[in-house]
């Protein structure tokens, strides 16, 4: 990875060294954020799964029923780390740590209960091109979904669970969108490469359906 970013076109080139120590720390934080989540992915290869189990010394119980707790514990540790980083540096963006390490703090906040607190910081980083705008869009959508409001960019999928005849059934759907007729154009302009229909399909074979907010909230109540 490049250690120096160069700015300027025809003007004299200015060099701004990256913070390599912070870059390394963020790379580890990103790895820690993702590693247990990898085990939940249906497309993980047997070799990669075995590698993670060995690296983290996981038991069969850890893999079968303990992943949520492992993720939650790791997320809490990561949040403590990134809050200290933010306090010291502000948002560690592209010009400070390069890519993809500039995504690390975003991932940790996205997986935390502190989205509302840090969303303005993420917006500022996106406005200053330190983060892709689509990451801000994803965080905004998640905040709106958590508030039981319509999302804007169609990035959030909700799953509800119910038990029938001793078996757990799962229904996953795209959380209601404020302007569904315009969402694909908005997604394209915001840096998303897929339509809402393709995104839902790729995210788990979901057929996109235009739920109203009322329908979605009723569905959550019924499935509890």
List keywords for this structure.
single chain, 224 residues, 2 domains, two-stranded antiparallel ribbon, 54% helix, 11% strand, disordered N terminus, DUF6624
> What pattern of helices and strands is seen along the backbone?
EEHHHHHHHHEEHHH
As a percent range, the share of strand residues is 5-15%
Q: How many separate domains make up the residues?
A: 2
Order of strands across the widest beta sheet? 1-2
Q: Could you explain how this protein is built, in words?
A:
- This protein folds into two domains: 1-7 and 14-114, no CATH class; 132-224, no CATH class.
- The chain is globular.
- Strand 3 (157-164) and strand 4 form a beta hairpin.
- 54% of the residues lie in helices and 11% in strands.
- The chain has eleven helices and four strands.
- It is mostly helical and 224 residues long.
- The N and C termini lie far apart (48 Å).
- Mean pLDDT is 91; it is low at 1-13.
- Helix 1 runs antiparallel to helix 4, helix 1 crosses helix 6 and helix 7 (115-127) packs antiparallel against helix 8.
- The protein has a two-stranded antiparallel ribbon with strand order 1-2.
């Amino acid at each position: 990875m490049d250690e120096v970013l160069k700015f300027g076109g025809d003007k004299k080139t200015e060099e701004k060294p990256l913070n390599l120590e912070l870059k390394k720390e963020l790379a580890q934080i990103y790895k820690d954020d993702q590693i247990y989540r990898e085990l939940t992915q249906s497309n993980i290869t047997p070799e990669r799964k075995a590698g993670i189990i060995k690296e983290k010394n996981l038991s069969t119980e850890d893999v079968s029923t303990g992943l949520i707790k492992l993720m939650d514990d790791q997320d809490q540790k990561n949040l403590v780390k990134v809050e200290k980083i933010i306090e010291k540096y502000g948002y560690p963006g592209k010009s400070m740590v390069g890519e993809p390490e500039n995504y690390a703090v975003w991932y940790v906040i996205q997986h935390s209960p502190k989205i509302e607190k840090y969303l303005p910081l993420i917006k500022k980083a996106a406005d200053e091109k330190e983060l892709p705008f689509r990451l801000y869009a994803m965080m905004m959508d998640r905040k709106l979904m958590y508030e039981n409001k319509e999302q804007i960019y169609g990035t959030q999928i909700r799953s509800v669970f119910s038990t029938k005849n001793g078996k757990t059934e799962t229904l996953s759907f795209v959380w209601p969108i404020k302007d569904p007729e315009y969402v694909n154009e908005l997604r394209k302009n915001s840096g998303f490469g897929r339509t809402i229909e393709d995104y839902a399909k790729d995210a788990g074979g979901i057929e996109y359906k235009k739920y109203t907010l009322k329908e979605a909230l009723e569905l959550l109540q019924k499935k509890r």
